[in-house]
Design a protein that fits this description.
The complex is a heterodimer of chains A (251) and B (160).
Chain A: H1 4-25, H2 34-62, H3 68-73, H4 84-87, H5 93-114, H6 120-148, H7 152-165, H8 179-184, H9 191-208, H10 231-245
Chain B: H1 4-11, H2 24-27, E1 30-36, E2 39-44, H3 54-67, E3 72-76, H4 89-97, E4 100-101, E5 129-133, E6 141-146, E7 152-156
Parallel strand pairs in B: 2-3, 4-7
Antiparallel strand pairs in B: 1-2, 5-6, 6-7
Classes of the chains: A mainly alpha (251), B alpha/beta (160).
The complex binds zinc ion.
Residues 121, 123-124, 126, 146, 148-149, 151 of chain B line the site of zinc ion.
Chain lengths: 251, 160
Amino acid sequence: MKNEALYNYVLRLGDDSLILGQRLGEWCGHGPILEEDIAMTNISLDLIGQAMSLLDYAGELEGQGKDHDALAFLRFENEYRNALLLEQPNGDFANTMMRQFLFDAFRKPLYEKLLESTDKQIAAIAEKSLKETKYHLKHTSEWIIRLGDGTEESHQRAQTALDHLWRYTNELFFETTEDVSLIASGVVPSMNDIKAQWSKTVLSVLEEATLVIPSNNWQFEGGRRGVHSEHLGFLLADLQYMQRAYPNMKW
Amino acid sequence: MVTKESILSWLEEVCDPEIPVLSLADLGVLRGVEYLNNEWLITITPTYSGCPAMKTMEDDILLKLKDHGVQAKVQLVLSPAWTTDWLSESGRKKLKEFGIAPPEAEVDKSVLFAAPTVVPCPRCNSLETKMVSQFGSTACKAHYQCLICSEPFDYFKCLK
Ligand SMILES: [Zn+2]
């Protein structure tokens, strides 16, 4: 492959969007109120759309004629490169919002930096996706504040979600040795910059939400190298069912 | 002879499948018409990444041109990214008549903690409306309600 480092990078971005989009879609018809049901599926749709652009580009870089469907539906579990955070089950509404917030706060500065990428296609996808991601982050930030600074029960649920999900956040900033060349050539930003901005957003929202970052900072990792939690297999069984049952089907 | 002008006038009849009063040109989704390598190349751009109507729009364009005996190809571009600024004046008028509030000039400035945009009711023009949800019936719309006439309505939200 001509540019394996870039392929792997784009695949990670695409898989993050795909897996989180699939998770959010599980809320369809189950939202706590109609407006939130629609909001979560709207965000899911944006993420799936971004995944299509990203996986199409990954397929192009790979050069084996694979499109987004081939990459989304026809890989094995250990070939997915999404962060573990995104495959975690929805849990309650607070847990879903917390997972989404921690991710949106990461995606927004990342897309802002990728706008300046020397790779034209990445920059174009970032330009398109950033506008959507801003709406997502606004939505989830407001919910985190409303839940955290809300009733006793909503506060406790939001805090439980944060305690549970915090251990998956460090992996978002994963960088490989081959990323160094991409950073040097201005294709992708250094994750240090992204993490600084992420921390700033997360801390300010959590403070307003009266939520506390857990003192135990033990962190999981694995998704970025294909070692996933037990949850991904079940998710993929659902995601891949149609394509496995009816090979090459198209909507 | 087929000219760019005739293509554009035929495409004026191709509408957004979800907002059938808007042509693709009104919506700003139609980005270019050019004759290249013996065929017409029509360029479109999605409103949102996951817009499920893009495929229908592409098919509708090809079908419309085929009716006029024109072979064409449709290409999708992501950049420059679509913005509500590309909505035409006539498009904004048609939206309002259809009962959808057109996008206000200002996008919610700050990502965090910004007050929702003031959107006039498309039915009674009152400014006393409230946002019910940032996410409405489709990705490009938010859900509002008028506090004066009680009309629930869609707001074609600003994207810049
Ligand atoms: Zn009204």
